[in-house]
Amino acid sequence: MFTLQIEHGIKDFGMWKAAFDRDPVNRARSGVVAHRIGRPVGDSHYVVVELDFTERGQAEKLLANLQDNVWNSPAASPALNGAPLTRIMESES
Fold first, then answer.
1. Residue 85 sits in a domain of what CATH number?
2. Surface-to-core class of residue 75, CB atoms within 10 Å of its CB (0-12 exposed, 13-18 middle, 19+ buried)
3. Using alpha carbons only, what angle is made at residue 74 by residues 83 and 63, rounded to the nearest 5 degrees?
4. pTM confidence score
5. What percent of the chain is predicted at pLDDT more than 90?
6. Which of 8, 21, 67, 71 is deepest in the core (most CB within 10 A)?
7. Res 24: pLDDT
8. What pLDDT is stored for residue 10 in this prediction?
9. Rounded mean pLDDT of 52-66?
10. pLDDT tens digits, residue range 7-51?
């Protein structure tokens, strides 16, 4: 299992969540099998998103899509505040 972890500042959680729910990258078609959204305690202007994949290449491809088509578009990511921090992690079980 591979997880694309994304962390970034946001201007407003409701606005950010609405954009996430519009799903501009079609997570299911991109290979996402599960996702989690977390916010640090005491920081309502920051989110951590984890997207799970069965294959590393799927995570890499979705990350490139986010970088090229979502994060640089104010219409697609209106609540983004700053550059996202990303990493792809492999689960060890």
1. 3.30.70.100
2. exposed
3. 50
4. 0.92
5. 76
6. 8
7. 86
8. 95
9. 96
10. 999 999 999 999 999 998 999 999 999 999 999 999 999 999 999
Range of the domain at 64: 2-90
Q: Structure tokens of 44?
A: 């309502």
Give how far Cα 54 sits from Cα of 11, 23, 36, Å. 32, 20, 16
**Tokens representing residue 9 in the block:** 């500042």
Residue with tokens 């294959």: 55
Mean pLDDT of the chain: 93
Q: Please give the full DSSP string across 19-38, using - where no structure is assigned.
A: HHHH-TT-TTTTT--EEEEE
Q: Which of these, 5, 7, 22, 4, lies nearest to 77 by C-alpha position? A: 22
- The structural domain count of the chain equals 1
Q: In what order do the strands lie in the sheet with 34-38?
A: 34-38, 46-53, 2-10, 80-90
Tell me if 73 sits within 8 A of 29, measured CB to CB: no
- Nearest Cα neighbor of 76 from 24, 28, 8 is 24
The one-letter amino acid code at 86 reads: T
SS3 59: helix
